[in-house]
Amino acid sequence: MPVYNAGGALRQAVASVLAQTFEDFELIVVDDGSTDGAIDDLRRFDDERIRLVRNDANIGAAASRNRALGLAGGQYIAIADSDDLMQPRRLEVQLGRFDEEPDLDLVAGASQVFGDADPVSPVSVPATTHAALTLGLRYGPSFFHGSTMVRRRAMQSVEGYRDLPLTEDYDLYSRLLLSGHRFGAVTDVVLLYRNHPGGISKTRAAEARRVHSETSERLRADVEIPALEDLIASARREPVGWRAEPRLRYLKLLGRTAREHLGGPRRVALRCGVAAACCGLTTWGSLLMHLLRRVAR
């Protein structure tokens, strides 16, 4: 957890970590040159799981996370920010997904957004399978960084975060994907993300869009579209009912990817259309099958 002038939100963030139902963890807090005195609130927590380290100067969130990564002794790294709130079962449910699929290297989770004067937003549920997440990440992440848990060895294999002023999380995901690491997610809400109207992503929106676009272009050029059997398996696994958002988003991604490849490798368009037809949602399935008939002419 990197900290820089987090104010009163820091105490809430730390308390949410210490309230986890899975209790065998260490919380590494990196003070990145704070001047507001909020870091002193950590002394109020009498918990040996908290480990506080201080940077000699302000080096930024990415470098601070890399320092924490170098100090971590656990097998998994749960990303945390100094103003967001973990849900109590976050570590438990994400570790359960790793146990369920041992070949996964990153597990994201569902989130909700809140603000000091705003109500909590509806649940945002990411896609849950590697194939669906791979398609989505070619255009941008569908989950908050603070909802992710990553195998420590996977992060070390790509040398952690790069020193970027913005979107270092998307850059990390891209390098993990290009290195062959596998992603998954849980539909449980694991994070309450605090919205800051004056946050860095809004005050420097133009630069953020540029960096995001460069990363997206690199992924679309270099990440291979998943095999047909993986796309179909993902279509059948994505949740239905009140948590059907990942399935709907996945269908849209299949359609977007199919259209993108109409003028080139049409086998990719066909692959995406067949997978969409297996989702069992008539509207999108019919639309994509109509698209495929045009491709076949």
Number of strands: 8
> Radius of gyration in whole Å, from Cα?
20 Å
Question: Which residue ranges are poorly predicted, with pLDDT under 50 across at least 5 consecutive positions?
Answer: 281-285, 292-297
> How far apart, in Å, are the first and last alpha carbons?
55 Å
Question: What shape does the CA trace take?
Answer: globular
The side-by-side strand order for the widest beta sheet comes to: 4-7-6-8-5
| CATH homologous superfamily assignment of the largest domain | Spore Coat Polysaccharide Biosynthesis Protein SpsA, Chain A
Q: In a nutshell, what does this entry contain?
A:
The protein has 297 residues and is α/β, with parallel strands linked by helices. It has twelve helices and eight strands. Helix 1 (9-18) links the parallel strand 1 and strand 2.
Describe the structure.
The chain is an alpha/beta fold. The protein has 2 domains: 2-222, Spore Coat Polysaccharide Biosynthesis Protein SpsA, Chain A; 228-296, no CATH class. 44% of the residues lie in helices and 14% in strands. The chain has helices spanning 9-18, 61-71, 90-100, 130-137, 152-157, 168-178, 200-203, 205-222, 228-237, 245-260, 266-277, 282-296; strands at residues 2-3, 27-31, 50-54, 76-78, 85-86, 106-114, 149-151, 183-194. The chain has a 5-stranded mixed sheet with strand order 4-7-6-8-5. The radius of gyration is 20 Å and the shape is globular.
Features:
single chain, about 300 residues, alpha/beta, Spore Coat Polysaccharide Biosynthesis Protein SpsA, Chain A, 2 domains, 5-stranded mixed sheet, 3-stranded parallel sheet, 12 helices, globular
